[in-house]
Structures are given as C-alpha cells and as structure tokens.
Design a protein that fits this description.
Blueprint: E1 17-18, H1 28-39, E2 42-47, E3 51-56, H2 59-67, E4 72-73, H3 92-95, H4 106-121, H5 125-144, E5 148-150, H6 151-156, H7 158-167, H8 175-188, H9 196-216, H10 222-228, H11 235-266, H12 268-271, H13 279-291, E6 298-303, E7 307-309, E8 312-314, E9 319-322, H14 324-328, H15 359-378, E10 383-384, E11 406-408
Parallel strand pairs: 1-2, 3-9
Antiparallel strand pairs: 2-3, 4-6, 5-11, 6-9, 7-8, 10-11
Helix pairs in contact: 4-10, 5-7, 5-15, 7-8, 7-11, 8-9, 9-10, 9-11, 11-13, 11-15
Protein name: Cytochrome P450
Family: Belongs to the cytochrome P450 family.
InterPro entries: Cyt_P450_B, Cyt_P450_sf
Length: about 425
C-alpha cells in the first residue's frame, strides 16, 4: 500500500476533482472554468474509483503534450496506477492496452497510421457524399410519413455507422451489415439491458470474417487497400485498426451531426439563414467543433519520465487526460469568448502524431454535412418537439452528445 498522504504535486493531492460525478455533466464548461480558475492549465483530477490523473485544460498545453511523443506517449502499459485498477474498471475499454494503431508509438505507429491514411485517401469524397445521401434518404423515408422522429436513434447514429461499414467493404443493406451496425452501437453506447462485451466480441468476429473475405477476394474498399499495402500488416493488425477506424467514424460523427442539428434548431442566428443556403450549415458544423466538440476529453497520454508541464511536476507513468473541449474554449485563445466560426484551428481531431489520420476529418465532414443538408432539404419545416431547455446531454465527461433529439415536421410521403 502507498502512504495515505501523497507528496505535493502528485495528482491525488488535495483539490483533485472527481471527473465521474453528475454535477457538471450538463454544463461541463463550468467545470473547466472552475478548474482553470483554481489550478491553471493543468488540474489534478480523479477518474472513476478515485484513480488520480491530470486534466490538461490549456490550448498551448494540449498542443505541447500531443506534439511531444517522446515525453507523453500513448502506450498505456506505462501507467503507474495499474496495481489499483480493477479488471472491470469502467474506463478499461479506453485505456486497456490493445495491439491497435491507437496504442503504438514511434516507427510502428507511423507504419500503422500510414496504412490507414493511404487507404482512406482513396475514398472518393463525391461517391461518399452520394452514398450518405442515399443512406440519409432511406432513414428519412422510414419516419417522414409520421411527422415526428427522435433523430439521435433514427438518423444521427445510424448514418455514419452505415457509411463507415460500407466504405470498409460490407455490402449495403444486408442482414449481416445491419447486425454489425447494431453490435457496434451496443459496444460503443450500450443502452439498459445491452451486453457491450458480447457485442464487441461479435464485432471483432465479423471484422475478422470481413478481413478473411477481402484477403481472398479484394474489392475497391478500405479493408482491401489496407491488406494490399506494402507495409504488410497481419490480418490481426488490420482487424484491430479497422475497428478503430469504424469506431472513430461512428460515435463522434453521430454526435457532431446531432449537436449541429441542435444548434441549427435552437439558435436564431442560424434559424434565420438555414433555409436560405448551405453556408450556415458549414458554419454550424465548425462552431460545434469549437463549443460542443463530440469528444470532450480523451484519455490519454502517459508521461515517459519525470517532467514539468504548466508549472506542475508530472511523474513518470502519470496519466494525462487531454481536455479537448476545455482547450478549444481556452480564454487565452478567445479573450473575448467569441469563437470565430471560420477558424478551424480547434483540437477536436486532436493534434500531432496521434491526431485523426489526415483524410479522416475530411471524410467525417462529408458524412456530417451531407446528413444535415439532406435532412433539412427533405424536411424544411423541421422544428424541435420540446423546449430547447428540455434537451439533455448524455451523462458522460468523455463524449458530448444529446440523450435524444425529438423533432416534428409536416408529414411527407415518399
């Protein structure tokens, strides 16, 4: 057992704030403001089960951490807290080491990320937009006649998932594809009564099967391109990295779509202009990345050795949580607290070697933009079915997404 009183500068030192409570989940920006006031750019926090970590709140500090892999690395096996972590720890899916591109470092990371980058670069953006429009039309057809819908489940979550599994080479509309889409939803975002562990097992098995099929019979898809890449990834490496690609394409993009629709439906600056043109949709998408970024906090980086950061003593093996949402609203970069909608220097796709591989943000933008524009074109009188203040955010300090987005509109037959 360690001594009950941690040394000064240790993350568990007095003043550490629990990141797992309910208090700030609807308004995390207040938490970031109070932490910044009390602790500056680096705040001591407690993860689930009172596990100590550092939350990096400042824009320059997040940029520094993500740009210096030699000091703050991704391999979570460095963590100095493993002896205190139970096997069923809620954050284990995010920090438990897996042999995927997410946890690799150095030359191995460049090799793995390079394969993903080149495979995604070949995705035709016009074709992807056409596919997304077709998927959007199919989803809208299912509820257009009723005049009401809950857009999180019926639209925002389903669309990027279908788009992602299709560009990875799964056939559109097959029972098999629909089952994978459902299992991905459960493993990433389990509802009451779901078994995320079992669902994740089925996802792994189905992606393994896909890799086997594409090894035997390649096609014009991301999986086949990854398998054919001269870097020579093993089937298991391709399976791990495909799951990372699909998961990254799904939940953050779904929340991006929904958070943007919320902004368009509740903010009069946009409501006046949306029907008049596409420009405001692009502005809304960008503003959401600054102010309601889908990935609020990302766990994390692990200190390679003792070092200083933001006036704090960081010890070898300490965990740093990247406060992407806090950094995006850092008063140092927005002294007037006015976010410039045209500026895209936000950290929503992270930064440095481990940021989203280059084409991924562009593809996510195509998916999100097409989803929002198609919905507004098909249902031009779309309005919220509840008062704006009745909308609630999911109870998560990691993701920023609504629990539901109920809307109403004039029923249309298709």
């Amino acid at each position: 057992m360690t001594d009950a009183t941690p040394p000064p500068g240790c993350p568990a030192h007095s003043g550490a704030v629990a990141l797992s409570g309910l208090e700030y989940q609807q308004t995390p920006s207040e938490l970031y403001r109070s932490l910044r006031r009390e602790h500056g750019a680096i705040a001591p926090v407690l993860l689930d089960g009172d596990i100590p970590a550092w939350l990096v709140l400042g824009y320059p500090e997040v940029t520094y951490v993500t740009s210096h892999d030699e000091l703050f690395a991704r391999d979570s096996r460095r963590w100095n807290q493993w002896e205190h972590i139970p096997a069923d720890w809620p954050l284990m899916p995010f920090v438990g080491y897996q042999p995927s591109v997410l946890f690799t470092e150095g030359a191995e990371h460049q090799r793995r990320a390079g394969v993903i980058t080149e495979a995604l670069e070949e995705v035709d953006q016009f074709e992807l937009a056409r596919d997304c429009e077709r998927i959007a039309d199919q989803l809208i057809d299912a509820f257009a006649g009723s005049g009401r819908a809950e857009l999180m489940a019926a639209f925002a979550h389903a669309l990027p998932m279908r788009a992602a599994v299709q560009f990875c080479g799964m056939p559109a509309g097959s029972t098999d594809t629909e089952q994978l889409v459902d299992d991905l939803r459960i493993s990433l975002d389990a509802a009451e009564g779901d078994d995320p562990v079992a669902a994740y097992g089925r996802v792994g098995a189905r992606i393994q099967q896909l890799v086997k099929e594409k090894r035997e019979s390649p096609g014009p898809d991301v999986t086949s391109r990854m398998l054919a890449h001269p870097a020579g990834l093993t089937d298991e490496e391709v399976v791990q990295d495909l799951i990372s690609v699909i998961a990254a394409a799904q939940q953050p993009t779904a929340n991006w779509i929904c958070n943007t629709l919320r902004l368009l439906l509740t903010d009069e600056r946009f409501a006046l202009n949306v029907s008049g043109g596409r420009l405001s949709v692009g502005q809304a998408l960008n503003e959401v990345l600054w102010l309601d970024t889908p990935t609020q906090n990302f766990i994390g980086r692990w200190a390679v050795r003792d070092t200083q950061l933001g006036g704090r003593q960081i010890r070898a093996g300490d965990c740093l949580v990247l406060g992407l949402a806090a950094a995006n609203t850092d008063p140092q970069i927005w002294p007037e607290s006015q976010v410039g909608a045209e500026n895209s220097a936000h950290l929503s796709f992270s930064n440095g070697e481990h940021r989203c591989p280059y084409p991924a943000p562009l593809l996510a933008d195509v998916i999100a933009r097409t989803a929002v524009e198609t919905l507004l074109e098909r249902l031009p009188d779309l309005v919220l079915a509840v008062e704006p203040q009745e909308l609630t955010w999911r109870p998560s300090i990691w993701m920023r997404g609504l629990t539901s987005l109920p809307v109403q509109f004039t029923p249309v037959s298709h």
